[in-house]
Amino acid sequence: MPMVGNEDFDGWLVVVIVSWIGVDGSFDFDGIVMLIGIVFDAVVLVVHSGAIGVYRWMICRKGHTAIFAVELVLCAISNHLASQSQIKPPSAGRFTHILSVGIGGSALGPQFVAEALAPDNPPLKIRFIDNTDPAGIDHQIAQLGAELASTLVIVVSKSGGTPETRNGLLEVQKAFREAGLDFSKQGVAITQENSLLDNTARIEGWLARFPMFDWVGGRTSEMSAVGLLAAALQGIDIKEMLAGAALMDDANRNNVVRNNPAALLALCWYWASDGVGSKDMVVLPYKDSLLLFSRYLQQLVMESLGKEFDLDGNRVNQGLTVYGNKGSTDQHAYIQQLREGVHNFFVTFIEVLRDRPPGHDWELEPGVTCGDYLFGMLQGTRSALYSNERESITVTVQEVTPRSVGALVALYERAVGIYAALVNVNAYHQPGVEAGKKAAGEVLALQKRVLAVLNEASCKEPVEPLTLEEVSERCHAPEDIEMIYKIIAHMAANDRALIAEGSCGSPRSIKVFLGECNVDQLYA
Ligand SMILES: O=P(O)(O)OC[C@H]1O[C@](O)(CO)[C@@H](O)[C@@H]1O
């Protein structure tokens, strides 16, 4: 079990300990050395392509335009914070809450960092709307209750046009109207200049707008305004986060691969999954505050690496599946299968050495603390997996601080870039997501046609309930009959269509109509 690592970066520690089972129990370091050229060519290429969130690398290069962009955001955030005492909601003494509206890369980083680093009693408590689930949105708004009046709403969307985020915004604005509040006095946008969201915020005169730059990817945006504004408002030291990320970036520029954490990590992934994603990455932080790290990594890794084609246009269907929750909790859920079942994974243990802040520990039995149990569970699971030839990587941090979290974010962002270069895919686009978005748009368009047909039949005297076949024929979409059934079942469950005969459990039995005739034909 070789051990390689980078130690003691200015008071904090990141060690990558790699345990693996080669055929002969060893690792081929010559193999790594041969890969350095590829890795570093790739890193340079990636940086030069500008298609990234590797802006910290750019910061070091004085004179690069990116430095101005990044400093602009930091400056805007600092100015905002400096003047925070003067910025008050119209109907409350001060802001007490943040409601962050965004999805994917515009939510996962801030969620992870809030869970990892927000103090127990932050100056502003954060909540998230990260879906277009009406009940989920209602829940967040209901939980805020009267404190909506002292809530800062941060709407985050790089593109400024993501439907879920737009819907969240519209729902929140409705809640503000119903509470008699002026949303524009409490709304902040983080988005690309001139996006739909940017224009909306500008025209409606929102409290503030922070820019997001084209070269900052959504899933690599935690260290941009996306992550930093919310973090700063929660009282998290964002300069320390940036310092940790910068230190990690420095380390990752080291062209001795065994001293380069991101290259090591990427090579471990490559080795463990045969460079084709043959094994899943199970991420197990042994620390409650890092619970959301695996969810954050799931997008970072899977959206970046899960690609149909490589850069030469070959169909490769690449990717690395990521899942995980936290240890030792997961030992009582699925570790049984990891130890003894199908061997289709490798584990990443995230180990945190500091159990509690200094002076707070106590021994719950002679010589043993609660944290010692957590430590023992991690080490025991790691050894048990190893003894059954299950590979694992251990990333160790001294403690969970803004600095180490910044370093972790940078470590994985860079590792993803390097791995993408190794397997020759573009880590910085997501063409596959478009297919689902397009199909969702088509479903909504079909729903409008269904509504128009049902409306017309419901306006007849007497009302004409229709079978599914009749609806699909009148929609000129017989091939979409299954989707039409789904649409009608959904509308019926929400009292927006009525079942005259039959039941949704037997699609061919149903006859459907609308409860009322809409003479204005709004659905057409
Ligand atoms: O920040 P936006 O543009 O709203 O996008 C949110 C998320 O949607 C995606 O584009 C995928 O649909 C992600 O890459 C992104 O993080």
Automatic annotation (TrEMBL):
Got a GO cellular component term for this one?
cytosol
Q: Which Pfam families match?
A: PGI
Functional pathway: Carbohydrate degradation; glycolysis; D-glyceraldehyde 3-phosphate and glycerone phosphate from D-glucose: step 2/4
Query: What is this protein identified as?
Result: Glucose-6-phosphate isomerase
Q: Which SUPFAM superfamilies match?
A: SIS domain
The entry sums up its family as follows: Belongs to the GPI family.
Check the record and name the Gene3D superfamilies matching this protein. Glucose-6-phosphate isomerase like protein, domain 1
